[in-house]
Amino acid sequence: MKNNARLLYGLLITVLIFVIATLAGSKVSLNSDFFPKSFLTHSVMLVLSIVVIVGLKKIVPFRIAWPRFKTIWKPILFGFLTAVIVNILLTVVTLATGGKAEAHPLLEASTPLQTFLFIFIYASLAEELLLRGFLQNILSPLSARGIRVFRQKLSLPVIISAVVFGLIHLILLTTGVSIMFVTRIVIFTTILGLFAGYYQEKHNNFSYAVVVHMAGNLMGLVAAFM
Fold it and tell me: I need a surface site. Which of 1, 66, 67, 80 has the fewest CB within 10 A?
């Protein structure tokens, strides 16, 4: 498959899965106080991502293995620091421009246990499987192209999957939060996606992307328990 076709099919399939998962979560009710609405959204996303990864295994070089302990601390550190630094800086900007500090709607509607199960673990896995597991991997032949930041290469698949990861969070505009809050989330998730993609590509291992994502959600998890 030519690179242009990979890019087109990769983006179209990713958007289609996201739209189907979002519609399923908004239209179907689980009638449960324990399972949040996001559970169905992420479940559909997870299942469809697995289907396309397996169905297109000849062109999606997906690999997952248990991460090595001595190489895992940097992804965890950068994921966590991204959450802390970006959110603090953008919150300061928001307050300085007359806005107000806002919490993520999912965090506000979840108990600490729900936050741990359905955001920290489940959402991290489902979103990474779509954006890094499928999209970044189907674009892997484009990895020769990219840019260098602080002498580290960010390949085109890493950049594209990170940007798409950030942009899908524009869906938060439908929840009633401010544009400034959504901007903060888009910037944060895009940067987090760059680290997730970079470490997945570096180690050729999907586990590293999930670890970075979880580390990025760690601040929200701690806040939920506190």
Answer: 66
